[in-house]
Design brief:
- By secondary structure, the protein is an alpha+beta fold.
- The chain has two domains: 91 residues, no CATH class; 73 residues, Nucleic acid-binding proteins (OB fold (Dihydrolipoamide Acetyltransferase, E2P)), CATH 2.40.50.140.
- The strands form two sheets. Strands 2-4-5-8-7 form a five-stranded mixed barrel.
- Helix 2 runs antiparallel to helix 3 and helix 3 packs across helix 4.
- The longest helix has 30 residues.
Amino acid sequence: MSYLSFLGEWFNLVFVGAVVGGVLFGFLSQRRPRPDVRAASLFLTGIAGLTLNGAIHDLALGSPADRFPVVVTAATLLGVGGTFVGSRLLRRLFPPVTGVTWNEQGLEGSVAQVVTATAGRDSPTGRARVRDSDGVVHVVRIHSPGAALRFGRRVQLGTFDDDRRSYPVEPV
């Protein structure tokens, strides 16, 4: 049996429809400000169902009618569970940004990350990024009285210098 004829069998049509529906639903929900996890859940359920049906078919474990309720239940649990775990993992690794501010005062003592090539004696100022507890990203000007600071270096912001309109920083 070829793979395309296997996909056309009645016990796989539900899962093929779930994959196609998940892809279409995902494309249609692209314009939303917050991502919709239902498309990912539908897609993962279809992929899990096709994988389970393929494995069971290759191992010749029962008739399609007997295994269909088990495969649907297992695929749904895998799809919804995988989406739940994946969305929580993405939210933890990439927390949402609620706003962006530029060169705001009052961030003394915060730990920032340098986002320009260098900041130090050779270059008068650089920029660093700080994320506060509300999810707001602050991009601030920095200057380093010491050696040059490379991109990605973590620094601690000192007291805001009104004359230079920047924060003095020390490497962490």
